[in-house]
Amino acid sequence: MGKIGKIVTIILWVLLIVSAILIISLIANIGEDADPVMGGWIDTNLVWAYILIALGAGIAVLAGLFHTVTNKKALKGGIVSLVFMGAVALVSYLLASPEIPQFPGVDKFIQEGLTEGVSKMVDTGLIATYILLAIAVLSIVATPVFRLFKQ
After folding, report:
1. What is the tens place of the pLDDT at every residue in 118-127?
2. Helices 3-29 and 36-70 meet at what angle, rounded to 10?
3. Of the candidates 47, 70, 93, which is a domain's last residue?
4. What is the pLDDT of residues 37-48, one digit of tens each?
5. What is the pTM of this model?
6. Total domains, the chain
7. Are residues 37 and 59 both part of a single domain?
8. Whole-angstrom Cα distance, residue 119 to residue 109?
9. Where would I find the H helices in 71-111?
């Protein structure tokens, strides 16, 4: 195990020990009545969980970016994926209608902030979902056909 492996192992053990201490402290302070001490431990554990989630997500994103930047084939695939996602989003937005649908009770939604812009974005999301579903179904159907002709 190299130097980086040892550092990662030490960091993981520290995170595990801190997590164990926080959980044991929470369990020791749980009671029948909702006292401020128990609430404080619950808040502390939630903040710790948020920190761990953010740290894990950040490391995953950075590792993915590092792999993509250092690997030319992965970089090309990433750019193609981004262009494809942008094209689907653009086509969906251009096809979307800003018209607010008319149905019983729509006035309540309009009073709560439903605007033409919100309606257009919802329509964009729906159209993008339909496009991606159609592509998925076509790829499922077309893959065996292409394999048949390839052999």
Report:
1. 889 999 999 9
2. 160
3. 70
4. 677 778 888 999
5. 0.56
6. 2
7. yes
8. 11
9. 72-95, 106-111
